[in-house]
Design brief:
single chain
Length: 231
């Protein structure tokens, strides 16, 4: 399984560098005009934010290790790397992420139930105007639920279409983790090629700052558009 865990650790290192870069850009006067909102990201000190970041990062490693170990040989197969063409790896990742996005929409709406939002999801919503670091400002239950749902989708894919390769899983994990950071960045990049990320970041900012009853989906606007919660 070392062939699986090395790409995961590499992607996490890339995401860590991205977090540091986006955090610097958010606080830099040089990029002040590109902030979505001038509001402070979170009304707690940096020590508290870093504590949540450390706990969430550690738990992410534990949960990922346990879930990928459970799926190894069934949902994720190292042997399939020798036979899967790249287009199949990309297709597998897209299919799983598409299904996940729809199911996460309903999980996120459930998290806004008055009991769950008070005891679980309210932790994340302390960030009224999130920056990249707040993508890790999560209650452990919410962190586990999101990763469990993603890996349950991989299991469902294996039942219907067969296991993913290591390459397919790496693509899926990279898109899922990196896009989650970018959507919480609090910054619009303004280039023509970044408009999908800028669009999603603005939508998620609305969910945090203006209307928590809008924009529940994680990766695309499709579920919110279909179910009337786009805003």
């Amino acid at each position: 399984m070392l062939a699986l865990y090395l790409p995961i650790l590499g992607i996490m290192a890339i995401d860590g560098a991205l977090l540091a870069l986006l955090g610097w850009a958010y606080d830099s006067p040089r990029f002040a005009s590109q902030r979505i909102s001038p509001m402070p990201p979170l009304r707690v000190g940096m020590r508290e934010r870093m504590r949540y970041f450390a706990v969430s990062s550690t738990l992410s490693l534990v949960f990922l290790g346990a879930m990928t170990w459970a799926l190894w040989g069934f949902g994720i197969s190292g042997d399939s790397d020798a036979t899967h063409p790249l287009w199949r790896d990309v297709l597998d990742a897209v299919v799983v992420l598409f299904v996940y996005d729809f199911l996460y929409y309903f999980l996120h709406r459930l998290m806004h139930h008055k009991k769950l939002v008070r005891h679980v999801h309210a932790v994340h919503h302390r960030a009224r105007n999130p920056s990249a670091l707040e993508s890790f400002y999560l209650h452990p239950v919410e962190l586990f639920a999101g990763l469990a749902l993603l890996h349950a989708c991989i299991g469902g894919h294996a039942l219907l279409l067969g296991p993913m390769s290591i390459t397919g899983y790496a693509l899926l994990f990279f898109v899922h983790s990196t896009l989650n950071i970018l959507v919480h960045s609090g910054i619009v990049f303004g280039a023509w090629y970044t408009w999908p990320i800028d669009y999603l970041a603005k939508k998620h900012s609305v969910h945090h700052k203006d209307d928590a009853g809008k924009n529940y989906s994680s990766l695309t606007p499709i579920p919110d558009t279909l179910f009337g919660t786009a805003g």
